[in-house]
Design brief:
The structure holds two protein chains of two kinds. By secondary structure, chain A is of the alpha/beta class. Chain A has helices spanning 3-42, 45-68, 84-94; strands at 74-77, 99-100, 109-115, 125-131. Chain A contains three helices and four strands. In chain A, α3 links the parallel β1 and β2 (99-100). In chain A, α2 (45-68) packs across α3 (84-94). Chain B is an all-alpha fold. Chain B is built from 21 helices and no strands. Chain B has helices at residues 2-24, 29-51, 56-80, 94-112, 122-136, 139-147, 161-173, 179-201, 209-230, 240-256, 261-275, 279-296, 304-308, 314-348, 364-377, 382-395, 397-402, 408-428, 433-444, 446-467, 474-496. In chain B, α2 (29-51) packs across α3 and α7 packs across α8. The radius of gyration of chain B is 23 Å and the shape is globular. The N and C termini of chain B lie far apart (46 Å). Classes of the chains: A alpha/beta, B mainly alpha. At the A-B interface, α1, α2, α3 and β2 of A face α5, α6, α9, α16 and α20 of B.
């Protein structure tokens, strides 16, 4: 291969390399930038305050269950007064302290959580424990 | 933020340090590998907790002591027979290792700052935190809860790595702060991404400082990109980023970096972590392990001429074929064992995957169309990655092979197989397809997206390497020629032993291998 041919091949290869570098840099750079905006949104003061309020409320429910429900007691999570979110979270918070059961007839206690102004001894949430 | 870091360092990294050092030695990967090894040991402890009447902490101490004792024993045995258990990585001076670790840690720090917001996602609560609390209760409570129909919403069959790590945190610090579980999940994800970053930083040629710097920068960028791909789910306790990042680390170490025992074992560890994190991770990890087996034990087609010429007999050929397939099988089964044990345990408890238990009125074609459309919408990077792949294969293939890097089609194969598994789950699953896709497709495509971004960064480093390489660079040519001479000699000797082995073109490191290391030889350049 002549010197000119080698030079031409080398030039084409350098252009391709530059194109690959540019494509990779732009694609990865753009994606990385989205993380900056996502993180900034998550760390917005209102977002942080909301998360802390919710977490604090559920941590309080967690403590209330351990205070009001005997250890190992079979409990039924009342679906009528709790929506799906509350049902799952309440089941989670009873673990492994009490034993959630799928039927009310097998339970010793019935648990439910409600929210709203007025009852909130847990930052707007209140745990209700009823004996069957 | 201090408690999760203490659990990560004292609870996971310290017990995992010796096994990580035995595998990765002075490579920067060791910093991120140690907590991952610790997390795997925590998952094994959870498997043990299901089987025997012990607390998670008790099981963890037992597993950690056993694993460390086994590593010490293997190191002592290796010293007695006069060989190093793993080929040390070439070209990584302490200075470069420290710089790589610092850059990768700095890149991970910004996305992880989002943990200060204390966001907890739906699945993080209903699945992962619930599992963590189950594991915290001890053997009896754990088994009772796993089989309790009231917990069906929490998918009790999901693998135990993430909840085990969180439960370990609860065992050390109590349950006064439930957010600890979320923070632990994301720190494990960060460690897995750190492994991807250090692997990509290793792609650069050892002797060229100018390419080392962009390679390390690319390693840092891929960590941020990993969190960007996951979005909010990257910091709110979902387990999709941990398994995806671990699986991508397995792909880069096992299918991209030059063939060596060190990278092979690191890839296996990453694949084990992925398989123990989520069911999708399990399927993807098994696929990645199969591809690694095929790369390290390639399919060979016997030539009839060899038998006719007296170079082999039908009996020995059959024996070699059986042995090769046995080795390939061992490459999958050995690292797949921890996740297979979990599968056996959940089956023994009578648990089944909730996604396939109901019947659906939607046709397969309808589900396939919806799934393909939604999965495709998250793979917008694929055309760019494909264009770069084609350009790279046409113009930079020689450079890639000279660096001993694997064929990029391995990486694409891993991506396609991983996505195919996700696609098949949607098609053959039983949940209402649109609601299911809306709830999960953005997360389960993390692996596919991250693999494609990893491919871009790898070609970025190869292209940089090429720009700063002169074709007539005397040192490099000399080294390559010496390596090739060495390689030809070893190919002949290895083939006479019945194995298809090729030796590094640019690294005379193959000479460091003892004959006893033939089960896991050092390979380079798989075309």
């Amino acid at each position: 291969v002549s010197a000119r041919g080698r030079w031409g091949r080398r030039t084409i290869k350098s252009i391709v390399c530059a194109a690959i570098i540019a494509a990779a840099a732009v694609a990865c750079g753009r994606k990385a930038y989205t993380d900056l905006t996502t993180t900034a949104n998550i760390l917005a003061p209102q977002s942080v305050a909301d998360s802390n309020l919710t977490n604090g409320a559920w941590q309080c429910i967690y403590r209330s269950i351990r205070a009001d429900v005997p250890e190992g007691a079979p409990v039924y999570i009342d679906i009528r007064t709790s929506d799906l979110y509350f049902l799952q979270r309440l089941t989670e918070m009873t673990t492994p302290w009490a034993v959630p059961v799928p039927r009310m007839s097998a339970a010793r206690l019935v648990l439910s959580v409600s929210r709203g102004a007025g009852h909130g001894n847990c930052s707007g949430l209140e745990l209700a424990v009823r004996h069957r | 933020m201090m408690q999760p870091l203490e659990v990560l360092i004292l609870g996971l990294a310290v017990p995992g340090l010796l096994p990580a050092l035995a595998v990765a030695r002075r490579s920067p990967a060791v910093i991120f590998l140690a907590p991952i090894v610790g997390a795997i040991m925590a998952a094994l402890a959870a498997e043990l907790e299901v089987a025997v009447s012990l607390s998670l902490l008790g099981c963890y101490v037992l597993v950690a002591v056993t694993v460390n004792a086994a590593v010490i024993a293997s190191l002592l045995m290796a010293r007695r027979v006069g060989r190093r258990p793993l080929v040390p990585q070439e070209g990584f001076s302490l200075g470069w290792s420290i710089l790589t670790v610092l850059i990768v840690l700095a890149a991970l720090a910004f996305p992880l700052s989002g943990l200060q917001a204390h966001e907890i996602g739906w699945d993080a609560d209903s699945i992962w935190l619930t599992h963590s609390l189950m594991l915290s209760g001890g053997h009896r409570e754990l088994v009772t809860a796993m089989t309790d129909p009231a917990y069906r919403f929490a998918n009790p069959d999901y693998p135990p790595l993430v909840p085990a790590v969180s439960a370990l945190g609860f065992a050390l610090f109590g349950q006064g702060n439930l957010y600890l579980a979320v923070a632990m999940t994301e720190l494990v994800a960060a460690c897995a991404l750190g492994l991807v970053g250090t692997a990509i930083a290793t792609v650069a040629t050892a002797e060229r400082r100018l390419t080392r710097v962009p390679a390390i920068a690319a390693g840092g960028v891929i960590c941020i990109v990993g969190f960007a791909v996951a979005g909010v789910n990257g910091i709110d306790g979902y387990a999709d980023l941990p398994w995806s990042a671990a699986a991508v680390a397995a792909v880069v170490f096992g299918l991209v970096l030059p063939k060596s025992r060190q990278y092979l074992v690191t890839a296996w560890i990453c694949a084990v972590a992925a398989s123990l994190t989520k069911n999708e991770g399990l399927i993807t990890a098994l696929a990645v392990m199969s591809l690694i087996a095929l790369r390290y034990r390639p399919l060979t087609f016997s030539r009839p001429g060899r038998v006719r010429d007296g170079l082999g007999s039908p009996g020995t050929a059959a024996h070699q074929t059986v042995r090769a397939w046995a080795e390939r099988g061992a490459f999958i089964v050995a690292p797949g064992l921890p996740c297979l044990i979990w599968v056996a345990e959940v089956r023994a408890l009578g648990l089944r995957d909730a996604f396939f238990t109901l019947s659906t009125s939607e046709s397969l074609a309808y589900r396939a169309g919806a799934a393909a459309e939604r999965i495709g919408s998250y793979l917008t990077i694929a055309p760019v990655a494909l264009a770069v792949l084609i350009l790279g294969c046409i113009f930079l293939n020689r450079d890639r092979r000279r660096s001993g890097l694997g064929n990029p089609l391995w990486l694409w194969a891993a991506c396609v197989v991983g996505l195919a598994a996700i696609f098949a789950t949607y098609v053959f699953g039983s949940l209402e397809i649109h609601r299911w896709l809306a709830a999960s497709v953005s997360r389960v495509t993390d692996f596919g997206q991250l693999v494609l971004y990893a491919e871009l960064t790898i070609w970025f480093v190869i292209a940089f390497d090429n720009i700063f390489t002169r074709d007539d660079a005397p040192q490099r040519e000399l080294a390559a020629a010496a390596g090739q001479r060495l390689g030809r000699r070893q190919v002949v000797s290895a083939q006479s032993d019945g194995a298809s082995i090729r030796v590094p073109a640019a690294a005379p490191g193959g000479t460091q291998q003892s004959p006893g290391a033939s089960m896991l030889p050092t390979f380079h350049g798989d075309g």
